[in-house]
Amino acid sequence: MADEALFLLLHNEMVAGLYRAAEQGEGENGRCTTKLESMGFRVGQGLIERFTKDTARFKDELDIMKFVCKDFWTTVFKKQIDNLRTNHQGIYVLQDNKFRLLTQISAGKQYLEHAPKYLAFTCGLIRGGLSNLGIKSIVTAEVSSMPACK
């Protein structure tokens, strides 16, 4: 439980620190999102490498996505993805109805415009993990109501 609190505090401070530096003229907001996504990418690569060292090879993309939704997501965020949808043509939609990194902000629409900066690291995390498993991907996040995200 303590490691979860540390992760949440570290994540919040990474986001706040990068955006505070941008406000002081040391960068742009777009660069902050890119930097957070890049950090997440590297962490995702390392975590997937560590989690899959003792597992058998995956048969296809769907098996990889199931692994990400169940095992990877559970290890990082202490719960499984609530919903996984696919069109069987390479598009996957992962939905988390109570995303931990957003529950700390608000459950209302008050901070909806700030949600993307808190999701950039996670998008990189998923993209880095998928990259290490041999899947080139584009990962985007969408928030229509807090704390749920797709």
UniProtKB/TrEMBL annotation:
GO terms for biological process: endoplasmic reticulum to Golgi vesicle-mediated transport; nervous system development. It holds the Pfam family TRAPP. One of its GO terms (cellular component) is trans-Golgi network. It is found in: Endoplasmic reticulum; Golgi apparatus, cis-Golgi network. Keywords: Endoplasmic reticulum, Golgi apparatus, Neurogenesis. Its main location: endoplasmic reticulum. Belongs to the TRAPP small subunits family. BET3 subfamily. Component of a transport protein particle (TRAPP) complex that may function in specific stages of inter-organelle traffic. Specifically involved in the early development of neural circuitry, likely by controlling the frequency and amplitude of intracellular calcium transients implicated in the regulation of neuron differentiation and survival. This is Trafficking protein particle complex subunit 6B. It comes from Pampusana beccarii (Western bronze ground-dove).
